[in-house]
Amino acid sequence: MCQLLGLNCATPTDATFSFTGFCQRGGSTDEHADGWGIAFFEGRGLRHFVDPQSAAASPMANFLKSYPLKSKNIVAHVRKATVGAICLENTHPFVRELWGRNWVFAHNGDLKNYHPKLHSHFQPVGSTDSERAFCWLLQELSKSHACAPSVVELTHTLHELVPQIRTFGTFNFLLSNGEALWAHCSTKLHYLIRQHPFATATLKDKDWTVNFAELNQPGDRAAVIVTLPLTNDEAWTAFAPNELKVFVDGAPLPVDPHHQPCISLRASLKA
After folding, report:
1. Model pTM greater than 0.85?
2. In what order do the strands lie in the sheet with 94-98?
3. Partners of 74 in beta bridges
4. Are strands 221-226 and 237-238 parallel, antiparallel or unpaired?
5. Is 2 one of the catalytic residues?
6. CATH code of the domain containing 228
7. Are 224 and 239 in contact (CB under 8 A)?
8. Is 96 strand, coil or helix?
């Protein structure tokens, strides 16, 4: 199985601490050595790095540990290959354009015999079940809304779509368009909110302690989402099985999953 890391922040935030600990799980403290990747937004732009080498040994990962990884939305992944060869095109996170924005997706789990019908605009480049799921999600989002809807409406639509994929297997994922970060748990996912008053934190996978009070202002806030907790001394919250959360400005956004969304393009076509 792979592992996921996501950050959603109120202000552009340095992710070096979390990313450094996470990389150790890519072949050093854990077995996820079949590639790694990270994507972080800068405004509407996106920096995207993927490498089929292990994160623990990758020169590119070492470079990024010293690069100022400041962003409001970050998605990272370390891979243990199950479906698809170990190669660049099968390395997460994947990126596509929809409604004039970059969308980023990373998946942990296996989808058995998952071959959805995809139209020409969203097609996988590689051979993973993960990329097929990403293409199908964006295809169905584009069919459901004529133009970019609000974060809340997108979340309602994802509540309808995600169960159709998880019937095929384990579907832990992170999804972001630079405006929000969606996280879905099938089996295992945790999060915490770092905010004022900030405290110290020590990584589980590397001997490094940071005092966040020295690095942040009172208005800063960051949600950190990860497969397994990164630190020893912070209060991590486990997602419930089959729970979908959306994070905006460093905090979970309350969204009623039973709310009936506004009429979408798909609904209007049925009328």
Report:
1. yes
2. 94-98, 101-108, 172-176, 181-185, 243-248, 251-252
3. 7, 40
4. unpaired
5. yes
6. 3.60.20.10
7. no
8. strand
Longest dimension (CA), the chain: 60
How far apart are the C-alpha atoms of 225 and 137, rounded to whole Å?
21
Write out the residue range of the structural domain in which residue 262 sits.
3-270
> Taking Cα atoms as reference points, which of 125, 133, 209 lies closest to residue 169?
133
Residues 112, 74 contacting (CB under 8 angstroms): no
The token pair that represents 107 in the structure block: 């998946």
What's at 175, amino acid-wise?
A: L
**Residue 242 main-chain phi, psi, to 5 deg:** 65, 25
Contacts (Cβ under 8 Å, ≥6 apart) of 117: none
Please list the residues that pair with 105 across neighbouring strands: 94, 175
Q: Given 2, 9, 135, 185, which residue is catalytic?
A: 2
Of the CA atoms within 13 Å of residue 198, those in its CB half-sphere come to 18
Alpha-carbon span 209 to 231, nearest angstrom: 9
What pLDDT score does 252 carry?
Answer: 96
> Could you give the CA distance from residue 92 to residue 79 in angstroms, rounded to a whole number?
8
pLDDT tens sequence across 161-170:
999 999 999 9
Query: How far, in whole angstroms, is CA 117 from its chain's centroid?
Result: 24
Q: Give the model confidence (pLDDT) of 84-136 as tens digits.
A: 899 999 999 999 999 999 999 999 999 999 999 998 899 999 999 999 999 99
Domain count, the chain: 1
DSSP letters, 179-209, are S-EEEEESS--EEEEEESSP-EEEBSSSS-E
Residue type present at position 223: A
How long, in residues, is the chain?
271
Q: DSSP assignment, residue 266?
A: H
